[in-house]
Design brief:
Length: 264
Amino acid sequence: MSQTEITKALAPIKASAVTKAVDGVISLGELLKVLDTPDKAAAIVPVLPKVVVPTSDQANAALTLVETIKAAPVPTERRMLTPDEIKALLDERAQLDEIEKLLKDRKAAMRTTIFNHLDVKTEDGISTLKLMHELRENAPETFTKVAADSGLNPDDLPAVPEYMTDAEAEHYLVPGSAGVVDRSKVFRRELRTEAPVLTAEGLAMLEDQGSLTHDEFLALTSPVRVVDEAKVLLWLRSHAAKAPLLRDAMTHGSTTASLFVRKA
């Protein structure tokens, strides 16, 4: 594919990345990051936090939690529990589950509230930048004065950014914090990015859709050696004495124990 064909097929920044990858300037992983970025930032659809109203069970559980914990059975030796102790632990667990759900709902509402605060702060910054650009274009003298008053170098006015949004298009993917002077901690919105991965399954899907030919699929992939159960059993027929060696080649299974509360 020529450079002209690449440019026609992709946005300029992505076309440039493809060329760099083909020329060995950047890695495939770096190219995938560029291709994974939307061509245009989506507009957010604001949401309001859910109003959390504790149920009567949740309110009662919260009010009596301290006393429940104080009265909870905590054996000082390894022994069987009495029926009354098991009953007390079941009641306590039910109480803790009610509170846990309440806390989960409230934390989710708090997240939305803080993110909305940071989103509005971000939008205010965008609006200010747009205004400064309009002033520079239509009223240069006013722009110079405003820039000087705000300590901004008129020659360093940044471009108006277009921010990406989360998967639900509810909030901007912009780091930020919210705090006050008389608290030692702040709310902080931090971003974590998982690198995109190109998979053989994804390429096979493109072949099924007709976007890739089978020859192209084969050109993009390599055979992978995997354990063949039938071949292993066939091999064991004549090498049964070597069966214990397989233990050293296996990923060992494991069993864990978890505690749940179920219907009796």
